Amino acid sequence: MKPRKAIEDLKPYEVKDETYLLKLDANESEDYLALEKLELRGLELYPDYDCKALRTALSMDLNVDASFITMGNGSSELLDLLFKAYVRKDDVILSFDPSFSMYEIYANIYEANFVKVPSNPDFRLDIDLMIDRLYLNPKIILICSPNNPTGYLIPTEDIKRLLIQTNALVIVDEAYMEFSSKDSTLIDEIETYKNLVVLRTFSKAYGLAGARLGYMLSSREATDVIKKIRSPYHVNTLSQKLGLLALSKKELIRQSIEKIKQTRTNFENDLEKLGFIVYPSEGNFVWVKPPQLKLSQRLKEKGVLVRKIQFNDEAYIRITIKTDEDMTLCLSIIKEIIHENK
Which of 49, 90, 142, 321 could form a disulfide with 95 if both were Cys (CB 3.0 to 4.6 A apart)? Predict the structure, then answer.
């Protein structure tokens, strides 16, 4: 039996299993909780269906009513559920380009028309270009801020201008917001704009990518819709426990985030000295144009995994920021490669 034509034509999101010296290609954080112990009692029972304890802890941390919070198996599951709930065939989905690749994949799965709004040459995201395309009557508008892979942070006031001019569901993906030098979250605007959804994750700042844990903040109407279509017991007990543990270590996480931001600045400065074009990033990564076309391949040969992205026939590299020691080693290997070609 054949799947739908839209599924047959899809190219899957692929992750290669490669050996490495440094893994700087997936924006993963350090293992902050490596020395912590986790209580394993209760695994014979199904998970807390509504993640009540975790949602309560998050509501206190974010100063948001728990009824606005929906947990998920990573924010990607919640994004999938939003598409499932609201998108019909041939609906228009707007998103900036480049941005998170899964946005287009979900649009293709649900047979929607994915319209890319171009970035400026310096990768700034102009909200007016998005507003100019509202005549297309989009069903969903996807905004990643800070943007993946470029790290650009869209000013909050710009997104608010968009929100008041459209009835589309505006999904703001804040996966990297904790690493921003500015407090530009839209979480506090959930009750003001009924068409706003904010996605967050424990995968980045909290170092729990392996737990697959994310959450959504939205109006009660959108929250109730997602409750109708999510799988029962979809967030496992271990992930819920890990989320609670991570929230109890806020000071440790905060210190780690501040360290990453400082390391990011230092690494950006070092790369600029080596001839890289460095674009301002507010994520736990840098977005650069390397001085050599085959740099990412040479890094891979030396065991350093980075994310190469071809955009408008130009080669760019996204490099995850980890410890000072990791970035010093990465920099030394980059210098070796550059020296080889002189």
Answer: 142
Residues 118, 144 within the same domain: yes
What sign does the dihedral 131-133-134-139 (CA atoms) show? Answer: negative
How far apart CA 70 and CA 253 sit, in angstroms, is 22
- Exposed/middle/buried for 160, CB within 10 Å: 0-12, 13-18, 19+? middle
Mean pLDDT computed over every residue of the chain = 95
Please report whether residue 179 resides in a domain: yes
Q: Do residues 265 and 243 both lie within one domain?
A: no
Interval 196-253: pLDDT, tens: 999 999 999 999 999 999 999 999 999 999 999 999 999 999 999 999 999 999 999 9
Residue 125 and residue 83 share a domain: yes
Task: State which residues form the domain around 239.
Answer: 52-248
Residue 146 shares a structural domain with residue 214: yes
- Same domain assignment for residues 179 and 57: yes
CA distance 279 to 287: 6
